[in-house]
Hints:
It is a single chain. The chain has helices at residues 2-24, 44-64, 67-89, 95-127; strands at 30-31, 38-39. Helices cover 78% and strands 3% of the residues. The mean pLDDT is 92. The radius of gyration is 17 Å and the shape is elongated.
Amino acid sequence: MTRALLAALVLAVAAVATWWAWLGWDTGYTTDPETGAVSGPYQPWQVAGCVLTLALVAAVGGWRLRPWLVAPVLTVAFTAAWTVHAASTDDSGLWAVGAALVLVGTGIGTTVVSGVAHLLRRRRADTA
Length: 128
């Protein structure tokens, strides 16, 4: 029980740290001078780095722990970090839609990645 709680805490910290390292610091929007289109606050490279980092955390977590622990903790912690920041900076209320999308996407991604890593470890143990 203590190991599971400690693992959950480490996973939660890793999820929040991943959000902060890739996305948490960027609050600026970019306006295209030719079209006037506004984009941001994240650049594609930031999102890709964030997804890859979170996938790595999920894979390591799934390899060492059970996916039923890894996926929910990573999903809730990452979504909470994203949501707190988005809700505090968005006046339109669309942060709630974004939060739902982040929750679903992160949930599916961390479940698949941690599950595959866990199955690979079990297969490796069975053949050894």
